[in-house]
Amino acid sequence: MSLSPEVLEPVPVADAAPVEKGVVGRSPGQLAWTRLRRDRTAMISGCTLLLLMLVALAAPLIEVLYGVGPHDEFKELLTRRGAIPLGYAGGVSADHWFGIEPGTGRDIFIRMVYGLRTSIFIALASALVTAGIGVTAGILAGYLGGWVDTVISWITDFALALPFLIFALAIMRPVEMRFYGPRDEVPVWFRVTVLIAIFAAFGWTSTARLVRGQVISLREREFIEAARASGAGLGHILFRQLLPNLWAPILVSFSLAVPAYVTGEAALSFLGIGIVDPTPDFGAMIFRSIAYLQTDPAYVFFPGITIFALVLAFNLFGDALRDALDPKSSR
Amino acid sequence: MSLLAVEGLTKHFPARGGVVRAVDGLDFTVRAGETLGLVGESGCGKTTTGRMLVRLLEPTGGRIVFEDRDITHLGGRAMRPLRQELQIIFQDPYASLNPRHTVGRIVAMPLTVNGIRPPGGVKKRVQELLELVGLNPEHYNRYPHEFSGGQRQRVGIARALALRPKLIVADEPVSALDVSIQAQVINLLRQLQRDLGLAFVFIAHDLAVVRHFCQRVAVMYLGRIVEIGERDEIYERPRHPYTRALLSAIPNVAKLGESEGRIRLSGDVPTPMNPPSGCRFRTRCWKAQDVCATEEPPLTGGVACHFPEGAS
Amino acid sequence: MARFLIKRLLSVSLTLFAVSVVSFLMFFALPKDPVTGMCPKNCNAERLERVRQELGLNDPKVEQYAAYMKGIFVGRDLGSAQGGKCEAPCLGYSYVNSEAVTDTLGRVLPVTLSIVIPAAILWLLLGVGLGMLSALRRGTLVDRLAIGFSLTGASMQLYFVGALLLLIFTYQLKIVPVPHYTSILDNPFDWASGLVLAWIALAFLFSAIYARLARAQMLETLSEDFVRTARAKGLAKRTVYGRHALRAAITPLVTIAGLDVGAALGGTVITETTFGIQGLGRTAVYAVRGGDLPMIMATVLIAAVFVVIANLVVDLLYAAIDPRVRLS
């Protein structure tokens, strides 16, 4: 190749841009949003989720419209012996859409509306805390490397060795005993806080691993070096340069963490460790229903199917989100 | 007065079973407004050198003096004002731009990071820069993925210019581009160099590009400079056998079909973990004598060779 | 290989040591007074103090931990109130059950193993088979059904599935007896019929995850060069898929399977609670409800041992299959 100066003198106008007209470009995020909107599964599951969340948010309003509260008891609708609901399918009627609970005579529908609230609140809060801790730890471990990485990776491996369910089960009681006496009433907010803390303590490691891997692959990219060469500080590199490139994995792990926490919270409550009666909760409801499987089989269905629908919608939406954010991955 | 002076610059990387001597004692200077080409095969340490000059890598030894200040081990805060004078253009136009930032934000980054508010605002300055490198200033809000390789490299150049530096290290700025685009980008750099009086350290393995762009050339082999001098001296009258071999490898249309003049080097480049004793090139040199194995030839008169061409 | 093994064993012991320290601190140091939970309800102040003495709760924490560890490795004397001499591995004495913790564990461990191991075999076969089938029949009705199955399974709650199974097979159709545990040595048929619902429930949930993974893995492997080369070479479809692709696709599943079995052994809490079978998990729940600290501590440790050993086995298997692992 020989380049003669005469030919090269004028600065040529930039080579033709392979883009449609329009001054504002479309960010990778906007492209993902477009893809998501075209995905039918994503739209259906997304709308279901929105609806369920709205129901959870509007629980007090629904209570007023429905006319029955979660703690109202309708003992007159139970059989005298065995306290089984009268009528068909666990006492389903115009006043009690999903029937009433055997034993206590409380309305199942309104308890589920409130149960949705407990479930979604705990799951979302846990997922947020998890993401916050996991992302910070992952970015630091990935970018700084060295002993920070060693320590964080070791904690991650260690947390994996702890059997989650048994550990969560076991830790709840000592924590309660630390703050309350053996005969004291433990308030609901305390249990909720401990649950969120337990989920966060166990959950952050997987997000941290994911983020760490991503950061390590981005760390050596030249745009990071360009920022360093311009005198950018650690904060700028971590949060302005790296973080925008991590939204995809963070969003995906967040959206898959939420259903896992819905399941986890229900499981702990099922075991009588998480949320306990009389606070409405799916896990606790299903646990109660097991005792009535023979006499009132309808009782298990409503909470069981609702929680299934909730988790399924989250899972489907999470999958769709992953596909939209990373078009190369296919289901 | 020289803008940049490098003395005995060394970079050793720890590695399994020893040390990689990537750069092993470099001496050179760059005057204000001058373009110095740094050429050599891949793995000879030229990219490492470039990274050290802009302090992305910490030198193991030696000194880097910029405008009479020793910047070799300057800390982050003290280095800041100097970073504005010393910028870098990268090889890969795809990895060097943050995919999640708009072009405007990318070019403005050096300004925001240093808290500089140019008269007329950041946006105006960025648009001036985009225009300067031959991009449409209206593309301010576009993302890197909407541009071609050549255009992306222009964005990288605009970013490097944002702080009005005195010296730019260009690390193979065109080798990732199509040949047809290479000429355009090189021309742009030439014009900027003239108009703004910029000094360049131009790292490349393509000797034709270097000849076109640089006033002086340094040839590197295994972490050392084997020959340095004015462009025409190097290209017309190479004195180091390695330089001759490199130059003979450039295809020349006029001499198509002639096999003589083409020097084929035998053997591979030795590992920088355990470089040969004495002259590092001796294992592949056709002129090597016993003295080459025992004594390392110093860089005198622009060449580091016991038996330079045209001396006998 | 020997060096790799030693390195792994060292890190395993380090992890277990850390688990024991963390759980010891949490369970014995966290409550205001561990004894109140540990002692039966008729405890008076004097007896509480004696228990405290015997448990050494007035000693420094480090000494308590050392005594606990000593019990595990060489055994120790717990005093007359706690059944006297406790042979190694001694995990303490449970006031709630009025017996040494190891005795309880010896009774419940076979139950948990009987639930998890057959279930694991079932879910691996079902999951991998289904995943392979749907990958090879990609886009067909079979594939869609398999995807639907795995999505359903992945979103189901074990206790809900369990309740449905109980309702259908035990209470309505009456073809399966109420879940219970009989030793396989006493009556293999009774053993199987008592646990079959638990196996099915676990297998349904877990195989769903495996079907998904196996399908993705198989699809990826099928598109790789070596498979296409093998096909182009003229090898029969069956040989290529069966021998080459299957092996490549199944290797990553080994890791997950190992971890899951480990986790399931430590986490059959829900299965056992749903079906009312008294295994390790349910023992843990009772221990927690009763504030039986030595028992809680022991179940956490045992469960951690399961997880860690499963990890180790997976690592060794991997190292045996893929020599590169040993180097890094």
Automatic annotation (TrEMBL), chain A:
Keyword Transmembrane helix: yes
Keyword Repressor attached: no
Similarity annotation: Belongs to the binding-protein-dependent transport system permease family.
Transmembrane segments: 42-62, 120-144, 151-172, 192-211, 298-321
Keywords: Cell membrane, Membrane, Transmembrane, Transmembrane helix, Transport
Lineage: Bacteria, Bacillati, Actinomycetota, Actinomycetes, Micromonosporales
Major subcellular site: membrane
Protein name: Peptide ABC transporter permease
Record localization: Cell membrane
Membrane topology note: Multi-pass membrane protein
InterPro entries reported in the protein's UniProt record: BP-dependent_transpt_permease, MetI-like, MetI-like_sf, OppC_N
CDD domains, per the entry: TM_PBP2
Domain ABC transmembrane type-1, first and last residues per copy: 116-318
TrEMBL record, chain B:
PROSITE patterns in alphabetical order: ABC_TRANSPORTER_1 (PS00211), ABC_TRANSPORTER_2 (PS50893)
Residues of the signal peptide: none
GO molecular function per UniProt: ATP binding
Domain ABC transporter: 4-247
Pfam name, any one: oligo_HPY
Keywords: ATP-binding, Nucleotide-binding, Transport
Protein family according to the UniProt entry: Belongs to the ABC transporter superfamily.
Name under which the protein is recorded: Dipeptide/oligopeptide/nickel ABC transporter ATP-binding protein
From TrEMBL, chain C:
Main localization, broad class: membrane
One Pfam family in the UniProt entry: BPD_transp_1
Cited Gene3D superfamilies: MetI-like
Sequence intervals crossing the membrane: 9-30, 111-133, 145-171, 191-211, 296-321
Location(s) in or outside the cell: Cell membrane
InterPro entries: BPD_transp_1_N, MetI-like, MetI-like_sf
SUPFAM superfamilies tied to this protein: MetI-like (SSF161098)
Every ABC transmembrane type-1 domain range: 109-318
Keyword hit for Transmembrane helix: yes
Swiss-Prot/TrEMBL keywords: Cell membrane, Membrane, Transmembrane, Transmembrane helix, Transport
Membrane topology: Multi-pass membrane protein
Family per record: Belongs to the binding-protein-dependent transport system permease family.
Protein name: ABC transporter permease
Organism of this sequence: Phytohabitans aurantiacus
